[in-house]
Amino acid sequence: MIDVVLGLQWGDEGKGKIVDVLTPQYDVVARFQGGPNAGHSLEFGGQKHVLNTIPSGIFHQHTINIIGNGVVIDPVTLKKEIEKVMASGVDPRHNLYISEKAHLIIPTHRLVDAASEAHKGEHKIGSTLRGISPTYQDKIGRSGLRIGDILTPQFKQKYETAVANHKQLLDRFNFTYNLAEHEPAFFEAVEFLKQFKIISSEYFINNLIAQGKKVLAEGAQGTLLDIDFGTYPFVTSSNTITGGVCSGLGVAPQKINKVYGIFKAYCTRVGSGPFPTELHDAVGEQLRQQGFEFGATTGRPRRTGWLDLPTLKYAIMLNGVTDLICTKSDVLSGFEQVPVCDAYQIEGTRVTDIPYNFNDAPIQPLYSSFKGWSEDLTGIRKYEDLPENFKAYMQYVEEQVGLKMSVISIGPDREQTIVR
Ligand code: GDP
Ligand code: IMO
Ligand code: MG
């Protein structure tokens, strides 16, 4: 059986932390989509680690970690990541497996990403500039390069063909660049990756499942960034929802068991796109400061706002969430009122389903407001000991979405976790 952890908002819900907490219950952790646009933070023993491509089970030496076929890999960032993990005393050569079918991000993909964003000007997506969209475009356009190609004699030729295509695009964007600056590090990283287990991960993972091993699939980004159901075009270029697990790892839907859906006790978003409950005032700034809302990958300040139930319910529906996890609950201490958005008012009508024109409609959030609490939650370990006002807020969310909270996270550390 395979369980899934994924984000129900616009990413950065705390997936890395939760996967790390759940890993001891699993034999395998596998990433199924996204790439180094992700930044998953883990904290234990007083140290913080940020992973971009490597699954968040890597710090458990006996856990198999798989980068699945649905992931896009930048050899340069992956090499740096592996070296950082090694510096902390873990050797991923033992427990990291890479799908031969995962697509490669090459230096010109990153350049095309930058050129495309610059060309869009004020309409830019706010991409992480990691080359994600151009790489998935080549995958869907059937002209991509895959990890398995690095082991073949035709690799250099395939690379040159891709680069020639990308150069045409870059010229069309009138983009100035110096490819020679990036290529030595790229080819060095490609050589470096050859010492890892490059495998047919769909056979590997299905064999493990057949042996009764427990697999945890780790999502990146969040449901509202899904290429089909997110706030298109302000989304990423992969299926971030549970459905992405089947295509991103090669497992059948009947194998999927639990779906852990993670949401922050409020909302954040990096990059452009709609965000109905966004706060542009001092309260939003307070959320950003208390939640330390700055991107793990890019360092960009995250946009902040109150919890949004219409999008949360939509995400729970799309993913078939069985277990709900609320993170960053501690961040809400010290606010006089904690509002939660129940519905939107659009041109005089109360709306609870996400409308097609979500990006442009004049949406006014309709709130229920809860009395705040001032207690510090970070030291609490039992649900009963949480402040009554916080529990009233949580209970309201549970009633509205029709699911109980399985886990409440009250700090970034592994230990700061309340399991019910
Ligand atoms: P991910 O992309 O979903 O893995 O999330 P990120 O790592 O990008 O962002 C989550 C941030 O919040 C990281 O800095 C985590 O260390 C931190 N974090 C996770 N859970 C909690 C929590 O319950 N409370 C607080 N205060 N921080 C948390
Ligand atoms: P994790 O896994 C938050 C956002 C970008 C941008 C849009 C498209 O850490 O939750 P892309 O580089 O994918 O083409 O950017 O998606 N984005 C994320 N936002 N967390 C992430 O990952 C994200 N990955 C991409 O900011 O708006
Ligand atoms: Mg992140």
In short:
By secondary structure, the protein is of the alpha/beta class. Helices cover 30% and strands 22% of the residues. The protein is globular.
Structural overview:
The protein is of the alpha/beta class and 420 residues long. 30% of the residues lie in helices and 22% in strands. The chain is built from twelve helices and 20 strands. A hairpin with a 7-residue loop joins strand 19 (405-409) and strand 20. The structure holds guanosine-5'-diphosphate, 6-O-phosphoryl inosine monophosphate (IMO) and magnesium ion. Residues 7, 11-17, 38-41, 43, 296, 327-328, 330-331, 409-412 line the site of guanosine-5'-diphosphate.
Low-confidence stretches: none
**How much helicity do the residues have?**
25-40%
Envelope shape: globular
Number of helical regions: 12
Secondary-structure-derived class: alpha/beta
Quaternary structure of the protein: single chain
Average pLDDT figure = 97
Compute the number of strand runs: 20
Strand count, sense and barrel status of the largest sheet are:
10 strands, mixed
Query: What is the strand content?
Result: 15-25%
Distance between the termini: 22 Å
List all distinct small molecules, including ions and cofactors, that are bound in this structure.
guanosine-5'-diphosphate, 6-O-phosphoryl inosine monophosphate, magnesium ion
Spatial order of the strands forming the largest sheet: 9-7-5-2-10-1-11-15-19-20
Rg computed from alpha carbons, rounded to a whole number of angstroms: 21 Å
